[in-house]
Protein 1
Amino acid sequence: MIRTKRFFGRPAPLASGRRSIVCLPSCTLSALAVVLVSCSVAACGPRNELVAVDIVHRQQGDGSAVKIVTAIHVESDGSTWQATHAAGASPSIAPDDRMALSICQVLDGGPRGAPQIGFRALDLGNVSVEGATGDLPVTRHELETGQGVYFRLEPSVDALPYTAGQENVVQATGGGEAPGFVARVRAPPPFQVEMIGHVTAGAGTIPIPRNRDLRINWAPGSEDSEMFLAIVTAAQGLVCRVRDDGEFEVPRRYLSELTSGQANLVLERYNQEKFDTANATDGHARSGRARYAVQRWHRVQTQ
């Protein structure tokens, strides 16, 4: 295991202007302070853009389940996945697709950290997801920071049922700022968490000692599939990217960094597909990714 730890501050406000991008002077981070200023593409390089679509089927230890659908188009002066998290627009626990297998890290602010990054979320127009009886509109939300808009819906499980292998479609008409898209992604196979330490996973709260390794068992997936595993406290997130082979042991050196108290253990199996948006007025198609995640949540007590 290689230990990685990152610390981030609060999301940075964006400079004024509908399509402005903020960047760091000389594109570097001062060790003493972060001062964000507006700049041109020529001065700080091209904007990073990403359209992120997430569908999450979240099941609690007591068997209850909720669905979450989100969509956001971000343009950022830094990492686009951090921008989607800074906007609060992704229900996935995956911190970064580039995180190495069998690596764990402890982040302040949750399993994806609390990034300080300049970004803007562009208007996608009207967004909808195909439901059991027709299209379901995904609600438009203004970001409290004034950095644009994102789209989120929590439909009932009946309105948007989970069926392993079924293709799910999310589409946007496009707005004055961003082009439209059609994103398709299939639901991954279901699974159950079987053991958390020496305790059978269920509806109750499970104690997790921070001074010993923690073995977690679940129903394995396909040979080449992967999962994310996280323990989320009030202020931190321990996250690991693991092989979906049904077993993983979290080393005690990571658990010891967590604070004591109520927490959630989350396992996430996901499918992800890439797509391109329709050509905008500038003739440039933007890249996107659609993720369907199945999550299992269990209440734990770190001690």
Note: The helical segments are 41-44, 80-86, 252-255.
Protein 2
Amino acid sequence: MKKDRKKADYLLKILARANANLQSIIADALKPESSTDGVLAQIEEMRKKLDVIEKWVGDHA
């Protein structure tokens, strides 16, 4: 049971870290001189993975 709790905490911990990274991008990297090459492709890949996580959460809620 403790191992399962640790895994659940890990999921939230990693998602919180990803959210903090996105906040940093907004605060620090959205500059006129920033390159946009490949950015939309990365965002699309991230959306696909978020869809998988969101579906998993819905299935296990």
Note: Residues 2-60 form one domain.
